[in-house]
Write a sequence for this structure.
């Protein structure tokens, strides 16, 4: 049997701030540590769907934001180390705990499209662009817009999806005279050819126009005009795959029944060998392997964490273009886009190899949030359950 060992001692990168500062060695990108997020705050608990449906607008949004962890300064709040722990029999990637904790700190310093126009953000962002405050979005309409946004996002950049959603919203308000904008009843008034025209910028727009209208009709006929709250019912909708279903279930209903694995999560976890690329031929197989070892308390946030980095890999993006989706009062308008671009470049240069990524994160002391090393956990490696990875980085694979 081929011997599997830990990588040799990791080289330390040049210890320099990620940005220039005039106030000493502390980088302007990295704030002081904040109160840690506890285990009980992130481990998913059962959801009473009837109770969720009964919530008025304000209470629903308060609950869903906390439930999904979409709170201010989400990534800058360190996780309690207990969240990152796994049973002794579970094998995890090399230096996983420390690397994951450092990734969260770095993620807090970048603005990615998913933060403004991804998943659960699209309805609120687009409503704001159309002059509708969050208070005017009903929970039912919000859930519908989450589902439709997810359906349109397949093989399409978030920014492009957002413009398509904006076109639908404006059409509903300006041509159909529906004050609330994109409601189920309004969408069902749009002809398939017109909808195709409104979403023409997204990938496979003609097919998606058909799927959207068919789905809306099913919601009206079979689900009392609301988005289904089970994975099987969502997967039964036209054009809805596992990634879309799990993301909608989480963002619309607060149910975390599986990890949402999209193209970015699929790509990075394979590059880093967090899953076995030879056995994971599609994102759903990646999801199953990832769920075999990733601590359940991270299932809610892993998509948002990795998607942010994955979008940065796409060098065709101009980071400053994101500002057009921000309302004038949004504090993110004051970001230094040159510094954001600098961070983008550093991440692009290091993220495509797990050993190099680990070294990069270790080489920036500002990212050190004091999470305990998992060296003692690695010492219990069972060679028979591991795949030989580049630079001898082990990861458990599905039986």
């Amino acid at each position: 049997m081929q011997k599997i060992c830990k990588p040799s001692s990791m080289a330390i990168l040049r210890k320099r701030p990620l940005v220039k500062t005039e106030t000493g060695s502390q980088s302007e990108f990295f704030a002081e540590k904040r109160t840690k997020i506890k285990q009980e705050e992130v481990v998913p608990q059962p959801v009473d769907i009837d109770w969720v449906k009964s919530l008025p607008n304000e209470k629903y949004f308060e609950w869903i934001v906390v439930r999904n962890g979409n709170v201010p300064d989400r990534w800058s709040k360190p996780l309690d180390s207990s969240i990152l722990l796994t049973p002794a029999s579970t094998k995890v990637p090399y230096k996983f705990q420390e690397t994951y904790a450092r990734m969260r700190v770095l993620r807090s310093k970048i603005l990615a499209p998913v933060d403004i126009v991804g998943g659960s953000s699209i309805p609120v962002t687009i409503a704001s662009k159309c002059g509708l405050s969050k208070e005017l979005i009903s929970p039912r309409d919000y859930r519908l817009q989450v589902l439709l946004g997810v359906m349109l996002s397949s093989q399409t950049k978030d920014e492009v999806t957002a413009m398509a959603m904006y076109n639908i919203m404006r059409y509903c308000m300006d041509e159909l005279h529906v004050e609330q904008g994109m409601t189920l009843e309004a969408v069902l008034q749009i002809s398939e050819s017109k909808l195709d025209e409104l979403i023409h910028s997204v990938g496979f727009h003609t097919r998606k126009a058909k799927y959207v209208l068919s789905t809306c009709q099913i919601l009206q006929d079979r689900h009392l005009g609301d988005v289904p709250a089970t994975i099987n019912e969502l997967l039964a909708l036209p054009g809805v795959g596992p990634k879309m279903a799990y993301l909608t279930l989480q963002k619309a209903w607060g149910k975390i029944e599986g990890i949402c694995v999209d193209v970015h999560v699929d790509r990075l976890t394979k590059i880093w060998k967090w899953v076995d690329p030879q056995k994971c031929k599609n994102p759903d197989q990646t999801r199953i392997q990832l769920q075999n070892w990733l601590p359940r308390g991270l299932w809610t946030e892993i998509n948002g964490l990795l998607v942010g980095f994955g979008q940065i890999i796409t060098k065709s993006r101009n980071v400053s273009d994101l500002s057009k989706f921000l309302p004038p009062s949004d504090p993110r308008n004051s970001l230094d886009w040159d510094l954001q671009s600098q961070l983008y470049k550093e991440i692009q240069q290091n993220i495509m190899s797990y050993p190099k990524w680990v070294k990069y994160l270790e080489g920036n002391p500002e990212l050190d949030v004091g999470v305990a090393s998992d060296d003692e956990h690695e010492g219990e490696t069972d060679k028979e359950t591991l795949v030989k990875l580049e630079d001898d980085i082990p990861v458990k694979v599905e039986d």
In short: DSSP finds 19 helices and no strands in the chain.
